[in-house]
Design a protein that fits this description.
- The protein is mostly beta strands and about 675 residues long.
- It is built from six helices and 34 strands.
- A hairpin with a 4-residue loop joins strand 17 and strand 18.
- The protein starts with a helix and ends in a 5-residue tail after the last strand.
Length: about 675
């Protein structure tokens, strides 16, 4: 779909949804009343009562606190599609099946939809930079190429999912996912799991997993639209219509983002603009009491101006992406046995117009099935076993007339894997998981991984001790096994062995919570392209280790502080040098204050990034100060604003590439329909 056509469609979509929302609102004045107190008390999962899915008047007991670490709530861990409405609790994906947060031994962070709105975040880049152990390095302004670093591992070693769809790009040189083009419209929560996770998620999950979960419509139909404008000629809009009936739910969204940007390279003078149009949706149906079906999709059409290294360039990159997930779930034996089967599809089309004149196409297909059997649940001892299989097929196509002679014109590979995971609980204090997985890839052979996690609660001391140990792998990308002057038939998957141990402590009636974790990850068989052969070879090994500390302090009913600090040591075992662009020290803190009986909030964010190495140079440390605020003008209207880089700090994330100066943005969100419109 061409950009002009997408823009026209989005405009029509916006007008149509507003019209429908007004009509629905008028209708619901007479027929759609909120459930009574009796109704709401009888069911905690009443459709439409999820606070983060509506704009209504904030309630002291239900407002999600601005938590960068998400360690406080007793929450639920879910599969790609939750089987039931989420409720008010935060949820995470750290296992193959639903598991309470208090039972999870791995390090996890959850960012809710309300957290995203309060921070004023528009892109995945902005959100991930606040997560402990994570860093994102964009090469310039909006839409420019970005790399994710997880506990010192690189972007190709972090698996990114959208409703369970693998987003790692098969057409990229190392299958890394670029978060620069991912807008946050229609996103309900982002779940981040750190440490090797290949036992459940397969290839690429060496450093961790990011699972993005889209909104599930609940309650009477609601239309919500957001408009924002600000510095660098930036304008964005997003419109969503969502709702549910007794057996059907839906959420449909269209978003548009445009910015004049600024020069990507430090030595450049011309602005490098960016446009992004995104259409996304999720629909599902409860076919019977034991059988449901869910479909999620996202289409992205973006266009960004690119610069060459250290100089302006007449280059333009058009990205077209399409993602799809279809899943069905069946339960038997009063819920003791659950079956889940799904199909995922991802398509990438990149057209580089300018100096390189090349295009890259990549597709991946995944079929997966898993079953969970609860064997014991007598109150003292609980046990369940989950087994699953999956098959993935990847294809790439490249313009053979381009200058990228080391990339294959066309190639494909497939992989098949299976896993089994046991979950144990003893006396509601000790929780552990143990899993094993075997994968077989057509070009790179086999990989075996395992993971064991444990969490032990000490209620008397208001403490929890947690730990995990496991292995991960990354199967070579097609550009690595089918490119170069020659082919190495012995190329093996990258491997990792990682472990972590930590403790969480609550103090002063849960007004202070601190969690500290030590982690270590040993990486082997790292794939490099040595000069002059340019043939992928397993010759690298590296170490990443460090400490993550996160916490939250409640100074009063209206004042909260969340903070995290990460100390990461990295080492290339061959050269004994630090790995590039990984800061040793990183600190993030947010102080939030509710005002006017929680009808408004102001927040101050501070982020420190230490110095790091980058191709023969040392990038200086930097300290950023950002501010955001929102005001609930009425139950249907919210105003918001933010100022980034208040002190106008001059800094670099990547050598030779610019970052934004002081900038300001503001906008409005309007919601029509739903339970809040009486």
């Amino acid at each position: 779909m061409k950009t002009w056509l997408l823009r026209g469609f989005l405009s029509a979509h916006f007008v149509a949804t507003i019209a429908v929302g007004i009509l629905l609102t008028a209708t619901q004045h007479t027929v759609a009343q909120p459930p009574s107190d009796a109704d709401s008390s009888s069911s905690d999962e009443a459709p439409g009562r999820v606070v983060i899915d509506r704009l209504g008047d904030p309630d002291e007991d239900s407002v999600s606190q601005p938590d960068d670490t998400a360690t406080l709530p007793e929450v639920t861990v879910t599969a790609p599609f939750p089987r039931q409405p989420l409720g008010d609790e935060t949820v995470i994906s750290a296992s193959s099946t639903e598991t309470a947060r208090r039972q999870v031994g791995s390090s996890v962070t959850v960012i809710t939809e309300e957290d995203i709105q309060r921070r004023g975040s528009r892109t995945l880049n902005e959100v991930l930079r606040t997560v402990p152990g994570f860093d994102v390095t964009p090469r310039g302004g909006p839409g420019q190429q970005s790399t994710i670093f997880t506990r010192g591992t690189n972007g190709s070693q972090t698996k990114v999912l959208l409703d369970g769809i693998p987003l790692n790009d098969p057409s990229s040189p190392n299958r890394a996912f670029d978060p620069a083009n991912f807008l946050l419209d229609n996103v309900q929560r982002i779940e981040v799991i750190r440490g090797p996770q290949s036992t459940i998620y397969g290839s690429d999950a060496i450093g961790g997993v990011v699972n993005i979960v889209t909104r599930r419509g609940e309650g009477p139909a609601q239309v919500r639209t957001t408009h924002e404008g600000g510095s660098f000629g930036t304008y964005s809009q997003a419109t969503t219509i969502s709702g549910s009936t007794e057996n059907f739910w839906y959420s449909l969204s269209g978003a548009w983002f445009t910015s004049d940007g600024f020069s990507a390279v430090s030595a450049g003078t011309e602005d490098d603009g960016y446009e992004n149009g995104t259409l996304s949706g999720r629909v599902g149906a409860l076919l019977t009491d034991e059988w449901d079906f869910d479909v999620s999709w996202r289409y992205v059409d973006s266009d960004v101006d690119l610069d060459g290294f250290m100089a302006d360039a007449a280059r333009n990159l058009d990205n077209e992406q399409f993602f799809l997930r279809a899943q069905t779930t069946v339960t038997q034996l009063d819920g003791m046995l659950e079956h889940r089967a799904g199909y995922s599809f991802a398509s990438y089309k990149r057209d580089d117009r300018g100096g390189f004149q090349s295009f890259f196409d990549g597709e991946s297909h995944q079929f997966d099935y898993q079953a969970k059997l609860t064997t014991f649940d007598d109150g003292c001892f609980k046990h369940s076993v989950t087994g699953g299989v999956e098959h993935i097929h990847e294809d790439i196509l490249q313009d053979t007339s381009s200058m990228f002679i080391f990339f294959p014109a066309a190639a494909s590979q497939f992989g098949t894997g299976g896993f089994v995971e046991n979950q144990f609980a003893v006396n509601d204090r000790w929780f552990t998981t143990a899993g094993y997985r075997h994968d077989d890839y057509s070009r790179a052979g086999t990989a075996d991984t395992y993971r064991v996690t444990s969490r032990f609660l000490i209620p008397e001391a208001q403490m929890a001790v947690h730990g995990a140990i496991g292995t991960g792998f990354r199967s070579p990308a097609l550009a690595e096994v089918a490119a170069g002057f020659g082919f190495d038939p012995n190329l093996r998957p990258e491997e990792s062995f990682g472990w972590e141990v930590g403790a969480e402590k609550r103090m002063f009636d849960d007004k202070v919570v601190v969690d500290a974790t030590y982690f270590r990850n040993d990486l082997d068989n790292l794939i490099v392209f040595p000069f002059p052969t340019f043939t992928a070879t397993n010759i690298g090994s590296a170490l990443t280790a460090g400490v993550e500390v996160s916490g939250q302090v409640e100074f009063g009913p209206d004042t909260f502080l969340t903070a995290s600090y990460t100390n990461t040591k990295t080492r290339d075992n061959d050269t004994q040098n630090e790995l590039l662009r990984r800061p040793r020290h990183k600190f993030n803190a947010t102080l939030s204050q509710f005002l006017c009986d929680k009808q408004a909030q102001v927040s101050l964010n501070m982020r420190f990034v230490g110095d790091r190495q980058d191709f023969g140079a040392t990038l200086d440390e930097y300290f950023l100060v950002n501010a955001s605020a929102w005001w609930q003008v009425s139950k249907n209207v919210r105003l918001f604003a933010r100022v980034d880089n208040i002190t106008d700090e001059q800094y670099e994330d990547v050598l030779g590439f610019n970052t934004a100066d002081i900038s300001a943005y503001g906008g409005v969100t309007i919601a029509l329909g739903g339970y809040d419109d009486e």
